[in-house]
Amino acid sequence: MQPTEKPFPNKKWDKQVWDQIKNIKKTEMIVFMAKDDRGVWKHLKTIGAVYVYHTNKYKPPFDMLTIHYHPGDTFTKGSLTDHLDHVCWTVDDLIRFKIIKKH
Fold first, then answer.
1. How many CB atoms lie within 10 A of CB 75?
2. Distance (Å, rounded) from C-alpha 13 to C-alpha 30?
3. Residue 67 Cα distances to 26, 76, 82, angstroms
4. Residue ranges covered by each domain of the chain
5. What angle is formed at CA 38 by the lines to CA 103 and CA 46, rounded to 5 degrees?
């Protein structure tokens, strides 16, 4: 079976932006997902410490996004970039959510 290609782009964050987002906590990401007013991602359910989001924008397996929550936890670099790519947030979105300051 061949790997499925992701239907969303892999972003390259410039250093100034990355320095501001690299320590996003998982609790903050959950809050930012709730603030995302584009209507793309919907909180589907919470199972224990796992927050599950769904979108109709992508076909399976890319229609689901999970955040495994533990207080104070941050993402690994790869996990954070995957999550940000998956939700398709731009620098403008990060500014609008007050995740970063204008650069």
1. 20
2. 21
3. 7, 12, 11
4. 25-96
5. 105
Strands 64-68 and 50-54: antiparallel
Are the CB atoms for 75 and 29 separated by under 8 Å? yes
Which pTM was predicted? Answer: 0.86
pLDDT tens digit string along 18-68? 999 999 999 999 999 998 988 999 999 999 999 999 999 999 999 999 999
**Out of 1.20.1640.10, 3.30.920.30, 2.60.40.1120, 2.40.37.10, which CATH number does the structure's domain 25-96 have?**
3.30.920.30
Amino acid at 86: H
